[in-house]
Amino acid sequence: MTAKAVKHRLLLLTGPSGAGRSTAIKALEDSGYETIDNLPLALLDRLLSDQPLTGPMALGLDVRNRDFSPQGLLDALNLVERVPGAVPDLLYLDCRAEVLARRYSETRRRHPMAPNEDPTAGIRRELALLEPVRAQAGVLIDTSELSPHELRATVEQQFAPTQGQALALTVTSFSYKRGLPQSADMVFDCRFLRNPHWQAELRALDGGDAPVGAYVAADPAYAPFTDSLQTMVETLLPSYISEGRSHLMIAFGCTGGQHRSVFVAESCAHALAHQGWQVSIRHRELNRVATLPGLGPESTEDGVYKA
User: Fold this and answer.
1) Which residues have a Cβ under 8 Å from the Cβ of 282 and sit 6 or more positions away?
2) pLDDT tens track for 113-161
3) 30 phi and psi angles, rounded to 5 deg
4) How is the beta sheet containing 186-189 ordered, strand by strand?
5) Nearest-angstrom CA–CA distance, 125 and 104
6) 59 with 44: CB under 8 angstroms?
7) Domain boundaries, the chain
8) Beta strands 279-283 and 288-292: pairing type?
């Protein structure tokens, strides 16, 4: 009986200059990937045909490559899809134009597509150039609101899940005023729950504080909502794994992203950890990130899970 061949991830990583490609490449390298940044596209065929993959590989590609073109990158994606033993994907790091402009202003770097002009001119050209590539991305991570630390954690959670877990989970809270998280797979609106903002003693607190949690949980609609939510999520997770998904983001939104969505996201994340999942938690508006290791039903480790 022949042993089943081991397959390895083969990532093409691209996106606009300043979106965090170097940070992502470093995170993948530290997670055990063989990484090559700024590889000329003309050398890709030779690289991948010389010898079979022996582990996961990530290749950083951007406009600084001398032979870079959107069609060339799409051709490269077709090439990696034919590599034996590879699980190919295109990871696109996205970022809003105004955020890219701010980053260039802070670092005073020249933009590769506008070396003698204002960086905003290069940003506009590059975003337009990359639009066909963005449309073909298998995974898109918007880095506009992510610090380098948060981007690194997101990449590691999605592409290098620990403890053999087949599906990495991220639970996030957000404010509808600032728009939906672009990478969210499931989005739940918590604005129907009563709002602690209108209670003077709770306004300055957030959903991680016990008085806020007690106030939200006392809403008659809370328990039926979270019970149904938990049942649905736990039912769907095996199907996502069967479809070959490696990452799932569940997002909870409210008006300000401070009270209701934070509390519900924390409750959902802790319940999933109780089921044995390792969960990454992010509160976008509070700029907080944490990880809950998967715990058994009897676990009561302080600061991680409490029934």
Assistant:
1) 150, 170, 171, 172, 173, 288, 289
2) 888 888 899 999 999 999 998 888 888 888 988 888 888 888 887 787 5
3) -70, -20
4) 186-189, 247-254, 168-175, 279-283, 288-292
5) 15
6) yes
7) 8-159, 168-292
8) antiparallel
Q: Are strands 288-292 and 247-254 parallel, antiparallel or unpaired?
A: unpaired
Collapsing DSSP states into helix, strand and coil, what is residue 193? coil
> Residue 288: phi, psi to the nearest 5?
-125, 140
Locate 42 and state its tokens: 């003309």
* CATH architecture label of 8-159: 3-Layer(aba) Sandwich (3.40)
**Helix %, strand %, coil % for the chain, to 5?**
40, 20, 40
Helix (H) / strand (E) element for 168: namely: strand 168-175
* Best-predicted range by mean pLDDT (2-6, 67-71, 226-230, 243-247): 226-230
Q: Under a CB-based contact definition with an 8 Å cutoff, are residues 161 and 246 in contact?
A: yes
| Closest among 92, 62, 81, 94 to 9, alpha carbons compared | 81
Residue with tokens 């209670």: 199
For residue 169, give both structure tokens.
Answer: 């989970």
Spatial CB neighbours of 253, under 8 Å, sequence gap ≥ 6 = 173, 174, 175, 176, 180, 187, 188, 189, 190, 191, 261
Concatenate the DSSP letters of all residues of 79-145 into one string.
Answer: HHTTSTTEEEEEEEEE--HHHHHHHHHHHTPPBTTBTTS-HHHHHHHHHHHHHHHHHT-SEEEE-TT
Instruction: Using the CB atoms, write b or e for 170-207: b if 16+ within 10 Å.
Output: bbbbbebeeeebebbeeebebeebbbbeeeeebeebbb
| pTM for this entry | 0.61
